[in-house]
Amino acid sequence: MKEFLVKEIASNSFFTKTVYLEPPKQSFSRGDQTEAPPPNHSFVITVPEIPFTKNMYKTMDKWGFTTVVSEGEPRNEYTHNVPSGELNDSLIKDISQQSDLDKVEKAEKFYTGFLQYVEDLFVRANVSDELDFADVTKKIRDMLEYIKEDRRFLMRVIKTVEHAPGKNYLASHSVRSAILAIIIGTYLKLPNHRLIELGTAALLHEVGMLKLPSNIYLSKRTLSDHERKAIVSHPIFGYSMLKSFNFPLAVCLAALEHHERENGSGYPRQLSGEKIGLYSKIIAVTCSYEALGSSRPHKEAKDGYTGMLELLKNEGKQYDDTIVRALVLSLSIYPIGLYVLLSNDKKGQVVDVNPENPRFPIVQIFGEFTPDGKIKTAQTAQDELTIVRPLTRSEIES
Fold this sequence. Notes:
The structure is a single chain. The protein is an alpha+beta fold. Helix content is 44%, strand content 13%. The strands form four sheets. The chain has a five-stranded antiparallel beta sheet, covered by helices on one side. It has a four-stranded antiparallel beta sheet with strand order 1-7-3-6, with no helix packed on it.
């Protein structure tokens, strides 16, 4: 048996084995009576099918219990346990490959590793003036293969792994923009070599920011005219920087043009329509969508649904309609990873798209299980199970 501190157990986590009460060594009071503690492991707190809820925290705190014991481990999602007598090496391997939880954990490991790579890459580029084209494209190839293999699991974790408070957000923004750009490029059926080029451009589209003082682009205050002009110049810095490291012209131009807009209202050259390159059009959409959904020093994050609606409005026709449509059809109007309230009053998470209709994605329903013990997934549909609205941050954490 392992001992777990109650305060360190994540709310609504599922233990892989039964959880028992570890009673305090002293007696405890209940009303006007004083009782001796029960024998060790005699009280079952929860079982693998039932999450460790906030009500359990409150009850244990009320009675003065601070620890529990179990032979299992807490997980984010329920994992069905096969009786030990039925396990063999091939079955264990199969379960590992098929488990949603394992795939989510694998996606989180891949994403955090890639994020660390980009943070180090930007430090080297800024401090040591190093930026290796071959090294970056090799990492983008890895990203492309991973997206082809497990895109929906990667999309579920990229919104839950946040950069540390006060840390430069450029790395996380760049990685997420690259993932979204490759997903859109895949939908548009770009060949592999162009997807790698697109991913490289999206990963490095903000590299010109490294030439600016961080206190400008991380500032919570209103910027001066001089500082705003400095921000507007970052695409030019990025273009010059990538060109000096012999990156392909298409990648350099994408860094230069990613803030251009279809209606000519962008910068630095006020290009419009067909004068803007395809990579730049894609990055303009992914960069804007990612920025809407991320917390910044000067603004709160919007949920994926609200961000998607803002892009769909396309006020002033800033974005290419084909690219916006590709984003919606790739992620759905309720994007993968979004936590939602369902019409049956259950909470859930969008886990996959419906290629037939972006309004009705596939959701995982919390608190409902299939006969084999897995969390239930369902296709939302008109006049059946529907999404009522996205959950607020407080509702997600409750």
